[in-house]
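Board notes (copied after class):
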Amino acid sequence: LGLQNFRSSAIKSNSMFSSNFSRPAPCFITRATAAAEAEDDNILHLEVDDWDRVVEESKNQVIIIDLWAPWCESCGGSGDNYKSFAYEHRDKPVSFVKFNIGKDLKLAKQLQLKKLPSIRIVKDGELTEEQAKPSRNKKEMDKAMNKLLKTALKL
């Protein structure tokens, strides 16, 4: 069960992930909001309790993961660029995951994260050394993410 299929089944079921996909119904949706939500639908949002699931799924597919924390100021600007890149490359055979590691610094230490945000590849249960340098500048971020994507597709 890949993350794409897992996401679909989580939305349909009452699994522990379904709360990540529920959104309050807005009174109206602007074009910008609709576009942002379409981009966001391509990314699976997970929390620290879900790390084992990421490890398990990475044995079947390559995952490009954005490790971030709500208290991380830099994570916000690069997060939008990550979301945009994931949407633009939704046809690639990789899964894009935003992973909130801010609640468990033990896991961050275990993963040997030196700074946040950190955009990395997870394959065969391991967080690889290859990473993209997060940036608020979309062109810089796209260049770094394209390089990471090429590496991911070779794995």
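Comment from the instructor: The chain has six helices and five strands. The helical segments are 3-12, 31-40, 51-57, 73-88, 105-110, 138-154.
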